Amino acid sequence: MTSIISNPCRLPGIFSLVLLGFATAFGTLRAEDRPLYQDASQPMEKRVEDLLGRMTLEEKISQVHGDSKFTTPAIPRLGIPVRWLTDGPQGVREDVGPYNWRSAGHTDDYATYMPSLCALGSTWNLDLATAYGNVLGQETRKRGKDIILGPIADIVRTPLCGRVYEYFGEDPFLNARMSVNYIRGVQTNDVSACVKHFAGNNQELGRAVIDMDMDARTLREIYLPPFEAAVKEAGVWTVMGAYTKFRGEHCAYSDYLINKILKGEFGFQGLVMSDWGGTYSTREAVLGGLDLEMGTLIPGTEKELPCDDYYLARPFLEGIRKGEYPVSLLDDKVRRGLRVMFATHAFDADMRKPGSLNTPAHQATAQRIAEESMVLLKNAGDALPLNVSNLTSLAVIGDNAVRRHATGLFGAGVKTMHEITPLEGIVQRAGDKVNITYSAGFSKAGATNLAERARLIEHAVAAAKQADVAVIIAGLNHSRYLDDEGWDRKDLRLPYGQDELIQQVVKANPRTIVVLIAGPAIEMDPWLAQLPAVLQAWYPGMEGGTAIARVLFGDVDPSGKLTCTYPKQLMDSPAHALGTYPGTNGTLFYKEGLLVGYRWFDAKDIEPEFPFGFGLSYTTFEYSNLKIVPGQDTNGPVVTAEFDIANTGQRAGAEVAQLYVHQEKPALSRPPKELKGFKKISLKPGEKKTVSIPLDQRAFAYYDPAKTGWVSEAGDFKILVGSSSRDIRLQDTFHLAQTTVEK
Ligand code: BGC
Fold it and tell me: Which domains does the chain carry?
């Protein structure tokens, strides 16, 4: 590729060498001769302006579009380094490209494979969200990357969405809390997080073309809060725009979303990048607030466009030269990118944290998160935990008992040093005392071969018959139309004949336990009533097998809770009940409005299979003594809900106490309840603790489009405290004395 602009499409390695020479030369300068931007003691804005003022037009242009799949170029003359981006939400991706998605064939690009974000969300443990971010930040730093493309803060609107396993869940408050801590964890390591996909991407089907039609209140109350919190509370440095359109404008350069809301109202000072191949026009991108264009393809093809021809490359440069765009627009984009570089100490090598990779501590964090994420959905007759001392044989069944899930994904794949499968974990935990057999039960390879299916089921049934207990490791994988980017699921049922398998096995052995490796949600109707125990294990990461075994054998108490409603059938879910999926003539009408997830099931009084916030434990918890304590914070009046939780069972365990708010007579209609606080509490048997959950002004507010602000109305609010959204244990009423509007 030849170039008309400064640094297009050269291999980053060359830049690094040039940069090294440059940095060495710089190092010999006396401090007073060094340019201001090289002085780490100067305020960031001064450094940014100083450096910007030294850049030529062409150099500036080189910083607003990619020069390979995941880089922007160095400018050796000024000491600007190559800027490296990397996926993804659940571990630092292996190196690809530079101009395609194929593995780069490196041997030093292994990383810790963390449990998926749906698992992290299900821990409801914010310290673990910070720890998760910290692992990613340290590993990103060590791998020499600057921006990691996570977390995903999008809302689960339909359980069919192929990426729900990468999402935290269906609730904006929970997503916001998780995103904030994840981002803080990442960014303490001189690495920028990149919260994505702003704002939408609620389905994969048609994501590149679909136009979202939703009202302002739904946008503000459901889809924006995690992004707003990411910007205002976590100070995220980078945001990725979604592929989808919003009211006719591509999200990555929607004047309304990016210029007015994100950069205007939220005060975002960092960098907005496109999703890969999500830029389609120079003019709209320039004016709509896009700061960095990545991954553009030749229109109508899957082929890479030469980087010089990206919309924000030559066409933008020529537009400026012709006077179509003021240089100030380009300056703003470059300035934002430079801020991220200064914030991550890209110019201050001696200050930059070193990072660390694949450490035992990171693996231990992965395991802890996996253990805390698992949701015990059913446990009739205390079928779990299993006890090795009264078990002689165990039949482990299922393709997912031996399948590894780390690689082979788009943005979420990780090249991991190891991935402990469920079978390995179970054998490791109990193999010396219990006779363990394995039978595949179902197969991805022979998915449509009915004779093979029958044979596999027959073998599994025979194995189950001979064992004390059968454990079926069932679920999905990252194949097309399952949990996979780019395609949605076609239904919520288990693939490969697993419904039949489970029914046959439980007939042969009533002590059958199902463990699900999958994102949310699965329809379990054909077999749920027939078997005693179901454990939702998500995609539990590289230590997942160990974590599953530890939960099954009771070494740890299952303490995860669902972050998505499991409908009895797909048609109970709002988008499907209202026929608003997958959109009509390219438009996706968000007809359910605010009634996403449990808000819909509550409002319409539909019984879910498992409600939002649900999860059993091996022990029991008792709630008592709710007090609403009025208080004051710097932003106005707040209250704190205080209550006691006691562990009334025989084992140590952890409970996620959830606080929902219900407004008695709102001027605008509101969902019956909204999550506004939660806390995870660990308790020994017999132990009791007092839990405090503070509520700020926003906890009581709804967004009023007419007032363009958040209104907390004077009046009565019910404070509902419970173990799930459908298991409210305590309630009280709080009277808010004054109406306030927060703009
Ligand atoms: C995904 C992003 C990802 C990007 C780069 C896109 O297809 O939507 O989440 O970060 O690819 O791999």
Answer: 2-95+111-351 (3.20.20.300), 363-564 (3.40.50.1700), 621-742 (2.60.40.10)
